[in-house]
Amino acid sequence: MHRIACSLLATFSCAAFAADPAPVVAAPAGGGLELPESVIQDPDSGLIWCANVGGKADAPDAFAAKDGNGFISRLNPDGTVAELRALPKPGGEPLNGPKGMAVLGGALWVADIDRVVCYELESGTQLQSFDLTEQKVAFANDLVFVDDMLLLSDTIGDQLIVLHGAERGQITEAEVLGAKGLFGGANGLAAIGATAYLASFPLTNMEKGEDFVRKFTLGEDMSENTRTPLPGGLWDGLALGADGTLYATDWRSKGVWAVAPGAKEAKQISKDMNGPADLCVLNDGALLVPEMLANKVTRIEPAAAK
Ligand SMILES: [Ca+2]
Ligand SMILES: [Ca+2]
Questions:
Q1: Nearest ligand to residue 35 Cα
Q2: How much distance in Å is there from the Cα of 211 to the middle of ligand 2?
């Protein structure tokens, strides 16, 4: 990440502006998480994984340095740590700044700055490291399977990339989607069927910038995207509930927002979160939200997620 954006990340603050967000269960602090960016639950095993960028937010280029200090933790459903350094296994190739993840068929795909790393979850064996420097990826951020196709966002490259072959266990080709620069500040991804949502985060202009969450259909003209009812902000993580509710995290209002299916308005459901990043919806309907700058993961109960 650009140096200026790093210092802004550490100091950025802004009052929450929505009225009466629902209370949030306070997560136990600590547990050893280091800049947790993303949480995901394996729908098959129920296990919960958390990607840690590693180190401290005020370290030089903390979010995109190839410093080898990233790791994946296994969490409990309340957001506490079950196994701090689950991946990579001891002696395995280090991770640098792991962020978004996707799970399919017992394999975990991890976005790691300029590449995507894949692990077999049961054994912890690394199955692949796919280099994306040719596509000029410098801030790989999120991953999602859309109709069995793995999609990657690159925040600094303002692009989305299709990773062919992942659905069969090995990426064989990376293809930039749509016109260059079409997806400014590309951050969080979520998808249902061929419908995808993209959260945008103006990384190089955090103080004044604001961006939006957009919806588009894969396979159609990518410039034909529409804004969701979510207001302008610094949007990071996206997740979809079983009922189709779209959840999104915003660093500006410091909270999680929800858009019910078909709703014309969005609602802020939590506040006072310190760097709310790539959240997930658990099998029980609760949300787990990594508060990246507070080194913790906070659970929002299902009743409070409406
Ligand atoms: Ca790191
Ligand atoms: Ca993210």
A1: 1
A2: 14
Rounded to whole angstroms, what are the CA distances from 278 to 136, 165, 170, 171, 237?
23, 24, 24, 23, 4
- Domains, the chain, in order of start with CATH, read 3-13+27-305 (2.120.10.30)
Residue with tokens 């396979």, as numbered in its chain? 219
Strand partners, 41: 48
Ligand 2 geometric centre to CA of 201 (Å): 9
How much is the pLDDT for 53? 98
pTM (two decimals):
0.91
Question: Which residues in the chain land under pLDDT 50?
Answer: 1-19, 26-27
Which ligand is closest in space to the CA of residue 200?
2
Question: Which tens digits make up the pLDDT trace of 91-124?
Answer: 999 999 999 999 999 999 999 999 999 999 999 9
Q: In whole angstroms, give the CA distance from residue 132 to residue 247.
A: 29
| C-alpha Rg value of the chain to the nearest Å | 17
